[in-house]
Each structure stands twice: as C-alpha cells, then as structure tokens.
Amino acid sequence: MPGSKSSGSSRTSKGKKSQKRRWTLPPVLAVLPVLLGLSVAAIAWFWQHGYLLYWGDATAHLNIARRIIDSRTPGYEQIGTVWLPLPHVLMLPFVRVDAWWRSGLAAAVVSGFCFLWAGGMLYSTVRRLWDAQAAAWAAVLLFALNPNVLYLQSIAMTEAVFFACTMTVLYAMARSSPTLAGLGLLGATMTRYEGWFLIPGVVAFFFFTRGWRAAAGVGSLASIGPLYWFGHNEVFHGDWLDFYRGQGSAMAIQGGADYPGRGDWMKAMQYFGAAAQLVSGWGLVGVGVLGTAVAVVRRQWWLVLFLAMAPAFYVLSLHGSGTPIHVPHLWPHSYYNTRYGMAVIPLLAFGGAALVAIWPRPWMAALVVAIGVGPWAFYPKADGWVTWKESQVNSISRRAWTKEAADYLAVNYERGSGIVAPFGDLTGIFRDAGIPLRDTVHEGNGLYYPALLQRPDLFLWQEWAVAFHDDAVSQVLSKSRRYRCVKMIEVKDSRSVEIYRRVRR
Q1: What share of the chain in percent tops pLDDT 90?
Q2: Host domain of residue 304
C-alpha cells in the first residue's frame, strides 16, 4: 500500500537522521582522567617531600610572577627580561594566594594543567594520523609515565607549558589547521626561546601543503611573540637584545669560559645526546628511534622534522650560544642544564606510537610501553630521575642559607620596616619568612634602587638589608656607620649571606 510504504520510508529516514545526529564523547576524554590522576599524584608526592622548591629557577619563576602583583612598584615592568613572560602570566591568579606562593603549589596548578593539555593533544594527533587507539595510548603513556616529565609538570619550570604549546602545533599540523598552528607557536615563542626556532619549519610545512596564504598566516601569528619581546627589551631595558646579552642572560653568565661542546659539533651532539638519554631512559630511546624511522617511512617526516627541531636548537646552542650541558658521567662530572635533554621526549614518544601503529593491538602497545618505561619501574628511586637529582644536588647550599636567614628574619623582622636586597636567589628568603615582596627594594623598582646604592646618605632608610658578601649592597653597607651586620651565614660551596640592620638614624 502506498500509504504504508510512505510511512515506513518516513520512519527509516527519521531513523537515519537520528543516527547521524547521535553525539558521542570525543575519544580524548578517555585519556584525560589518567593524565589527571598521574599529575595530581606526582604533585602531591613532590609537595609532601618538599621538592617543589628545590630548583633555583623554579623559585625565581614563582617570585617573578609574585612581584608583578606584590612589589614596591607592582605592574607590567616587573615581568623583567631574559625569561619569556607567558609562564609568569599564567601563574598570576594563583601566586596571589600566599600559601600557594610560599609552597610552590601556585605553579603546580599551571604546570599540571599544561601536562594534561600536552598529553591530550599528543593522543589526538596520533589517533588522527593512524586511527589507532592503541598507538595513541602508547604515545601518551610513554610521555606521561616518564618521572622527569612528572617532576617538571609539578614545579614552576617552563617545560610543561612549552610541551602544551608544541603539542598543539603538532595536532594543528596533523589537522592542517594554520590558525591553530599559529596560536600554538605564539604560545611557544612566549614560553621558551626554542619556540622561535620552530617558526620556519612550521611555516614551510604550511607553504608546501596549504599554499602561501596559510604559511603567511602562521608566520604572522607566530612572529608576534619575538617582535613583542624585542620591543619590550628595547623600551624597558634599552637594548632589544638584552635578553640575549644583558645581565642575567645565558651569554653573560657563561662569559668567555670554555665548556664541552663550544665550537665543537661532535662534542655538542655527544653532550646533548647524553642528557637526552638520561632523561628518557634507554628503553624509550630504543623504541623511539626505531619508531621514528617507521614514521618517516610512513610519510610522516614533516611531523618528525618538527619534533626534531627543539633538540637541534640545543645542539646549536651548545655549539655557539654559551649554553653548556653537564652530565654526571662526562667531564666535568656535574649536573647543569641536564633537563634540556627533555626536548627529545615528545619525538621519542611519537616514534613509539608509530611502532605500535604497525600492529595496532593492545598487546603491542603494552609491549612498547613496558620497554619504554620499564627502566623507571625497575628502579623507582628519585636518585635515578636526573631532573630531580640536578635540582637536589645544585640546591643543597642555597636551601641551607635560605632556611637559616628566613628563620632569623621571621623572628626579628617587623612588617613594613623595609628590606634592601638584590632580586634573585635571595628573594627566596622573604618567601620562606612570609615577608611580602612589597617590603623589599630591588633592581626592578626603577631608579630608586641605583639611587640608594649611589647616595645611601640621601635615599637609604630601610631598617634591614640582605646581601651576598661583597655584592653591590654589601659593599655599600659594610662602609656605612648607620648599619651593622647582625648575622652572617656561611655555607659550604656558597658565598656568605649577610643580614644588616640599621643602628643609627
């Protein structure tokens, strides 16, 4: 019957429409609870053991973010130079809470969220490329179960933020989305300087795959970061390259001192490779290198090239930009910048996923992940986590004098009486003592700081001063009759810390 036919056809049509409209959860949501659990567990463990503030650079990042809102002269200028601003800006809502600033948890919130984002983007990229859930899970677990990644996503370092930005770019390249790639690159260029190095490669990718308009869009968005930072340094520090050659830059810190890899390509590759192996472990290196070759054969060489650019940046920096890397088993047998080897982990995790994508079965993913993270499971001790070990070894003396000075000032300092101290490692004393940074005077407070050093008779009125022996503040106060050194803290392998108090008005 025509009527019944039409009715059946209508029902079938409606059924098809409802099937088309059926909405399912994005696959990436399955991986986010795992990443969240790992992140929270790692942050809680490192916080419980007091490790969130071991790294000197981590405490500096926290204090830079805090001084933007808590300073004698709060505001934009407190962003400073040398370190790029995005991580400090992201921490602003959280460093307002005194307890979070003092404990380091303010940064853990930001780094932990970026860890989740990076893992989600990596999962989505692999899933889109090979339509293999097993491979996507393998990539995430190879990345997220690395204890060095878990440590750096718990503290105020910039690696987690940078991973989030670069994984966004990776996903954008897999989706062929120029706008998303440009935004991801913009974030990377405002987080770490190797982000600047990524721009030409990504622009070239979109030029050859989408044409010059897409390439120009990506390049324009990404270039905002470097151009802004050049302008910032010129306006506030009088030199558009102050971040590169000014006080506090890697070039200034290293000076003319020689180090392994300077001017020697083979040594530069050897030392970066040694650091990369230490942070990755031999298991991840094995599956990652093999899988990277597979990814190239499977015509994903553009993405491999992109992920290899950050490691290449560090080899170049070792060779000619005054950026040494020291590893414990090579001369000079110490820890310094070993965390730079972390740049290779996304490439190796991507390679491991490519290996699984050949046979995308759960057993294959389990095997690759077991090989990649097995060394950490067999030796689950912090001494084997080179990023934690570097922070522990290099902070022994700083932690000792910070605690002693903070304990002294917590008892003797009267809120609002004022402290003169250069900004840097000494600022950790005031954080630990619970002294607001607005009570302190430092280089970031405009012309007043150099004025009080040049004419202390006119401008120096603060009750207290904290200095390293023989620095600019120490030299001024040691000659003053109005101030007396009331405490000197001497710790092995460190300059003495001097605390002065005003005795005459």
Answers
A1: 86
A2: 28-388
